[in-house]
Amino acid sequence: MNFRFDLLMDYAPFFLKGTLYTIGFSLAGILIGTIFGLLIGLGKLSPYKIVRLPLDWYVTFFRGTPFFVQILLIYFGVVPLILGDSNAIFAGVLGLSLNAAAYIAEIFRAGIQSIEKGQMEASRSLGMNYYESMRYVILPQAVKRMIPPLGNEFIVLIKESSILAIIAAPELMYWGRAMQGQYYRVWEPYLAVALIYLVLTLTVSTVLNYIERRWATE
Amino acid sequence: MIKVQNLKKSFGALEVLKDINVEIKQQEVVCVIGPSGSGKSTFLRCLNLLESITDGKVYIKGIDITDKKTDINQLRTDVGMVFQQFNLFPHKTVLENIMLSPMKVRKWNKQKAADKAHELLAKVGLSEKAGVYPGSLSGGQKQRVAIARALAMEPEIMLFDEPTSALDPEMVGEVLEVMKQLAKEGMTMIVVTHEMGFAREVGDRVIFMDEGFVVEEDEPKKLFEAPSHERTKAFLSKIL
Ligand SMILES: Nc1ncnc2c1ncn2[C@@H]1O[C@H](COP(=O)(O)OP(=O)(O)OP(=O)(O)O)[C@@H](O)[C@H]1O
Ligand SMILES: [Mg+2]
User: Fold this and answer.
1) Does residue B143 line the site of ligand 1, with CB under 6 A?
2) How far apart are CA B229 and CA B206, in angstroms?
3) From the CB of B163, is ligand 1 less than 6 Å away?
4) Of A114, A124, A204, B161, which is least surrounded by CB within 10 A?
5) % chain B with pLDDT above 70
6) Residue B229: what are its φ and ψ, rounded to 5°?
7) How does strand B188-192 pair with strand B79-82?
């Protein structure tokens, strides 16, 4: 087999554009997902069942079904309901965010529950109310423990965003498939795409390791 | 100062406190002893509502704390608590541990809170540790910081739940010394402890609890030397 670097060079601008979209989708997903996830995670600690129950269903649904199915439902079902017409970018960001929120909610819940009970008790015994205790005592400690799993979730999102190719969102995988369709070549587009994903995920995990090591020595 | 009437506490079907009646006067130091599981910690934790009260009344400074209208957070600023496991905030320095609650609850400014914290650190003999994180302290030092942290709220009552039980023997003394000093200054104190020497020397009264009841209470000397109940005798003979 001969590897056609020249074809790859022709396609490089599209891969670059796709990479930027992939980064954009993943960043939007992790940021919006973190905000939703925090709210859902806190809600799941609520003493009221009426608050907890729908959130439990939400998390169960998004963690228990394939992202492939979720994105089709959102692209063909949910987004047309909201916008009147579908939009791949909007559906992609929405799908990734909603999916990430479910996982991140669990990360938050686990992080908060990993803080020893005595911390909340000491804080309450000093006269701070529940919210002050959460804000100044529990969350600062919990967030530190949440960083590694949040980083993992980011890596998962980078990879999951490739599924957006199915709704023709112009991210990296979409251009890989486009190149295959155009030249009837398999190795060039998919090896290139795989390599770019690898660079993205390795970069994130290196940054994460660095942050973790710095905190460990603090 | 504290009046406990027919206090009952259950965890589900398990009744842990079964009718506690105790009165504690201002400046009194009361030691609570009893076998493991007898409800000593639960009793203490009911006094600042870390545990909800199942039945009965508790009055602190004349205020019924079981009344739903009572401001729990306000109550807790008057009742300091020291835990067996210290429970210092590991992400804050020693000084920040002490300053946090006065600033957030009492709304003191930073300067005032820091001054108070330094004053208290001097009192517990740890001035040089102001800037370090709790992780680098010994157990005895941690517990002294925890005491200073509770005192920063200027409480009128201090609750101690086995403050020396998690310490290596050589560190027990330094913590008891701080507590003795506090007692001398007139703090109202309730101390769950196995330190009979401390109870004898500092305590005005000793309460012996067993199976959720106050079996016997008396001056330390009388209770230790001439206990009137069989169960007290049996307990004392095991630990003395
Ligand atoms: N949160 C809880 N839920 C259920 N049961 C509890 C809870 N806290 C305490 N108990 C039970 O209540 C009983 C009394 O516990 P408590 O901690 O008050 O005893 P204690 O006298 O302080 O014992 P120790 O000397 O071991 O500290 C025990 O049987 C304990 O298992
Ligand atoms: Mg106990």
Assistant:
1) no
2) 14
3) no
4) A114
5) 100
6) -110, 150
7) unpaired
Residue B11 contacts residue B41 (beta carbons within 8 Å): no
Across chain B, mean pLDDT equals: 95
Complete DSSP assignment for B87-118: ---TTS-HHHHHHHHHHHTS---HHHHHHHHH
Is B56 within 8 Å of B5 (Cβ atoms)?
yes
CA distance A104 to A55: 13
Which residue in the set B89, B91, B153 is minimally distant from A127, CB to CB?
B153
Count interface pairs A-B at CB distance under 8 A: 60
For B48-98, the pLDDT digits (tens) are 999 999 999 999 999 999 999 999 999 999 999 999 999 999 999 999 999
Q: Is B193 in the pocket of ligand 1 (CB under 6 A)?
A: no
Q: Which helix (H) or strand (E) holds B48?
A: none
Which bound ligand lies closest to the C-alpha atom of B39?
1
Average pLDDT for consecutive 10-residue bins of chain B (240 residues)? 96 95 96 96 96 95 92 94 97 97 97 97 96 96 98 97 95 96 96 93 95 95 92 89
| A194 interfaces chain B, CB cutoff of 8 Å | no
CB-based contact, A65 to chain B, within 8 Å: no
Helix axes A139-160, A5-44, angle to 10 degrees: 140
Say what the pLDDT of residue B103 is. Answer: 97
**pTM (two decimals):** 0.86
Distance between CA atoms of residues B119 and B210, nearest Å:
40
Q: Are A34 and A26 in contact (CB under 8 A)?
A: no
Cα–Cα distance measured from residue A39 to residue B236, given in angstroms and rounded to the nearest whole number: 53
Asked if the C-beta of A142 comes within 8 angstroms of chain B's C-beta atoms, the answer is no
- Identify residues of B whose CB sits under 8 angstroms from chain A CBs: 48, 50, 73-74, 76-77, 79-81, 83, 85, 87-91, 100-101, 104-105, 146, 149-150, 153
Residue ranges of chain A with pLDDT lower than 70?
A: 1, 217-218
ipTM of the complex in this document: 0.94
